[in-house]
Amino acid sequence: MNKTKIVAIVTLASCILLSISLISVVLDYQALVQQKDEEYLELHLQLLDETRLAYEYWENWTRWQKAEVNETEISLDDQEYFLDQHSELYESILNGYDPRTLKTIIMHGCIKTDSNISLPDVAYTYQKICEGFAPYEVLILPEYNGNLNWTETLQWISTNYTGVPICLSVFEGGEDKLPNPNVQLTIAEIEQAMAVSDVQMVRFAEMISWYMNANITFPIDKVRDTLDFCRSNNLKVLWSEWKISYDVYPKLNDTISGFEDIVTFVYQTNNGYNEPFIGYLYANQFEHWGASVQSWYWKEHGHGDETAMDPLLMINHTILARNMGAEIVQFEPYWYFFADGEPLETIRTMWSII
After folding, report:
1. Which of 9, 34, 62, 182 would be 174's cystine partner, CB 3.0–4.6 Å?
2. Domain count, the chain
3. Between 33 and 117, whose confidence is greater?
4. Domain of residue 17, residue span
5. In this structure, are 18 and 134 located in the same domain?
6. 285: closest CA among 325, 225, 258?
7. Is the backbone peptide bond immediately before 135 cis, with ω within 30 degrees of 0?
8. Is the pLDDT score of 286 beyond 80?
9. Same domain, 64 and 123
10. What pLDDT, on a 0 to 100 scale, did the predictor assign at position 87?
11. 55 falls within a domain
12. Looking at the domain assignment, is residue 188 inside a domain?
């Protein structure tokens, strides 16, 4: 056997041994990943069970408060007591595992000409958001001067949102057009938006609570027609409410019955009556749920302007929702996170932690 053959045989043997070693490493890694995933799943299921028990405790306790103490609303002080009773669970969720259920980030993007709030280059800002929140899917929730004029809003979307996927707001309450809501798009108007932009989701915002407060009959048949249209056109639906009460959720369940597969219920943090943890306990009773994390929380709780909310508190509200199993997180208002389309420190801080 000559020297060349010997070298070839030795080289081949070395390659075989290296291959076996690499295969062993890969198999060991896969086994470790599987073990970690199983441990992770077990911990997550335990956390979900504890969260379910906390929800049941809250429900029973609030019923007692309302029946025995005759309280119609559960005060923030009472909620603080509840949170103290479940502080260990709260902290374990906040500092615990990401269940990897979060798939989509929805960022508010708007122009308000009377307040000099601008979004000069939607595609540029969208790209920044995608980079910051990678690997999550990102949609933009467009708003043009409160969406009060559909013709102007549609034109702005048509001109500025080419190639940018959007969540189209189809209902917004408000007080500008009483006794009518500020925004209530017809199916034909949704089709107009679909013809000029990449509409992937539609949003009903505070619809049930608005009709309740306005003391107007809720148009359930019209809403269900819209949901049927969404299903037929492969559109997802985001339904958000801030109000927690026994009259909101039964109406919501009746409205979305049969459409649970396409509707994600989102709890909004923009109210002064509830802490996010309480709202999330309610929200995660739905098949699909998420959180609308808003700096309006700061203003509604009487702490000051919405732009002054501590970014770390916003991040806590976000992580809490994510770790409780939220599938969608929506952020607003736009001007808390951006100035003229450029990211502010508020969102840069979030990108560095989330």
Report:
1. 182
2. 2
3. 117
4. 1-72
5. no
6. 325
7. yes
8. yes
9. no
10. 83
11. yes
12. yes
